[in-house]
Amino acid sequence: MKKVYIILPTYNDWKSLNKVLKILNYSLKGQKKEIYIIVVNDGSSSKYEKTEKYRNFKRVIILNLKKNVGSQKAIYIGLRFIQKKIKSSEKNIISILDSDGEDNPRIVKKLINLVEKKKDFFIFVSRKNRTEKIFLKFLNKLRLYFTWLLTGKFLNFGNFCAFPSFILKKVIFKDDIYLAFSSGVVKNYKKIFLYSVDKNKRFYGNSKVNFNFLFLHSIKIISVFYNTVFLRSFLISILLIMINSIFIIDVSIIILFLLFHFFLLILNTISKPKKKFNFYIKNILRAQWA
Predict the structure, then answer these.
(1) For residues 112 and 101, what is the distance between their CA atoms, to the nearest angstrom?
(2) DSSP secondary-structure letter at 179?
(3) Residue 82's domain is classified under what CATH number?
(4) pLDDT tens string 200-226
């Protein structure tokens, strides 16, 4: 029987996770597949308490990490865990979504169907309408065009996705997804299909998206495409120097170019995983109540 692995990174948001699991359990009812839930507990300070049984899941596995590493690294660890468990010959499906409710869990069933229809495509969910305030929407647009200018990629999607398991080896072997998941996938796999939906509001609490988050996220995305960014920013710098006639501005452009790429190079170097994925796992809880 075909298996579906669903990765849910979470950090101190067990209430939302329980609601996501409840919706998944209901919406995936009747699927002729074994559903495995992989919860990556990203160093939460509070412990998980189950609220009910999820009878439509084959198993729920909780990877408790030693410390908080961030959602991108948590996803990487979850994927490495799955890679270790499945055989390359198996035709399974992997899906990833955030556990706060902003990624609509009801869409997962549609994504599974799309994977079976599209065969060798990596399916990402793109944002048709966002729920943030106007200022944050504006900042996000700036981020999208800024990253497009430097990378040539318009990455209007995040972690929410589904794909056939044979693609996993192709997107994970260079470890780019450890830094930024979506850009790491786009860099290493070309057949991408976008499925547009409205972004949900968080089930509980406020969105964590702010200026600092968007800025750091943009830098990480850019870092993945370092070679392309170097070439594009070099050409932009040359163009700015050519149209400018003030010496001090020319010098400033050169200094900014060098500092920017020194920073990206350092970020790329220090952000690669230094140890095997299981080093980051404190323990694994295989829930028997599924």
Answers:
(1) 18
(2) T
(3) 3.90.550.10
(4) 888 887 777 676 777 888 888 899 999
